[in-house]
Design brief:
This protein is of the alpha+beta class. 33% of the residues lie in helices and 25% in strands. It has three helices and five strands; from the N terminus they run E-H-H-E-E-H-E-E. The chain has a five-stranded antiparallel sheet, covered by helices on one side. It starts with 8 loop residues before the first strand and ends with a strand.
């Protein structure tokens, strides 16, 4: 982020579930955007909350849990960092027509975020960083 887009709000405690992560990001966006309470009908807010939920849910469901979480926002966008305990890279589900759940969150994250980075951590696990424009 450049100086003019430096974070004006952040939250860093590890959430216990996706709902907590969404609540914290919604409050952060409300403070940064000056619109509180934010409406889920606000498309950019809905996109940011969906990405938040998917990242945290994936870490909890498939990667041994969230080990670190950070959300930073300014009027330009939301940057999320989610770390988990797994070195397994996110994957997508091949369309099979059987309508079984799962495998669709990662492609959605990649469509809604303008930047997605996955890094393996030296101590084990991985870090996923995304940027969602506001």
């Amino acid at each position: 982020m450049s100086e003019e887009t430096a974070p004006t709000g952040r939250t860093g405690l590890v959430p216990v579930d996706a709902a907590e992560a969404r609540r914290r990001v919604k409050a952060l966006l409300g403070a940064v955007l000056g619109r509180s309470p934010l409406s889920a009908r606000d498309t950019v807010v809905a996109d940011a909350l969906l990405v938040t939920s998917e990242l945290v849910t994936n870490a909890l469901r498939h990667a041994g849990g969230v080990t670190a979480f950070e959300a930073m926002a300014d009027r330009v966008g939301l940057r999320l960092v989610v770390e988990d305990a797994s070195t397994g890279l996110p994957s997508t589900k091949e369309p099979s027509g059987d309508f079984t759940p799962g495998g669709y969150g990662w492609p959605m994250i990649c469509r809604l975020a303008t930047s997605v980075t996955v890094s393996l951590l030296p101590s084990g696990g991985k870090r996923i960083q995304v940027f969602v424009p506001l």
